[in-house]
Design goal:
CATH topology of the largest domain: Nucleotide Exchange Factor Grpe, Chain A, domain 2
Subunit structure: Homodimer.
Main location: cytoplasm
Number of helices: 4
Helix content: 55-70%
Family: Belongs to the GrpE family.
Subcellular location: Cytoplasm
Number of domains: 2
Order of helices and strands: HHHHEEEEEE
Largest sheet: 3 strands, antiparallel
Strand order of the largest sheet: 1-4-5
Keywords: Chaperone, Coiled coil, Cytoplasm, Stress response
Shape: rod-shaped
Length: 201
């Protein structure tokens, strides 16, 4: 009797297993195809999004580069403008100073031609010297320097050789005499010194 019950229970279990097996359906080929299409569409959307993100990153990098370049150009323009203003302040009077230099030359010539031995000329000489000193001091306040290279080596950047004279007492290319003094404005040459230069005998 117990054996029959056990067999009946076994049959019921077999029936239940069969029913559960019937409940699990195997996807059809159409369903698999549809699922694959959905997956491919999702992958395509993800790929398109990745491409768009990469493009946006590239555009962002390009715009950053453009902004940096624009900032650099603005800084360069500002720096150039500041340099131009500084040069205008420094060298704006260059033409006027060049026209005033002959006045100093004439004062130097007057001092060199007056006979200093005569007592009557001493007051005149003193007056010219004071005028010349005052003039040079005023030029110095505006950044003008005198180039008086007597006894110095010849420098073509500052001196203009008028002639060469053989001389064995000094090194060749030494300035023996200065016809006309030169002048510089804030380091820039206003006028070269006209000089006589030595050469080997």
């Amino acid at each position: 009797m117990a054996k029959e019950r056990s067999e009946d229970q076994q049959d019921e279990q077999n029936i239940d297993t069969g029913e559960h097996a019937a409940e699990v359906e195997t996807p059809t080929a159409d369903q698999q195809h549809a699922a694959e299409e959905v997956l491919q569409e999702e992958l395509a959307v993800e790929s398109a999004q990745e491409i768009e993100i990469a493009s946006l990153h590239q555009q962002l990098a390009e715009h950053k580069d453009m902004v940096l370049r624009a900032q650099a150009e603005v800084q360069n323009a500002r720096r150039r403008a500041e340099q131009d203003v500084e040069k205008a302040h420094k060298f704006g009077v260059e033409r006027l100073l060049k026209e005033l230099l002959p006045v100093v030359d004439n004062l130097d010539r007057a001092l060199s031609t007056i006979d200093s031995e005569q007592e009557a000329n001493k007051a005149v000489i003193e007056g010219i010297e004071l005028t010349r000193k005052s003039f040079l001091d005023t030029l110095g306040k505006h950044g003008v320097e005198v180039v008086d290279p007597a006894g110095e080596p010849f420098d073509p950047a500052l001196h203009q050789a008028m002639t060469q004279v053989p001389n064995g007492d000094v090194e060749p290319n030494t300035v023996l005499d200065v016809f006309q003094k030169g002048y510089r404005l804030h380091g820039r040459l206003l006028r070269p010194a006209m000089v006589v230069v030595s050469k080997a005998p």
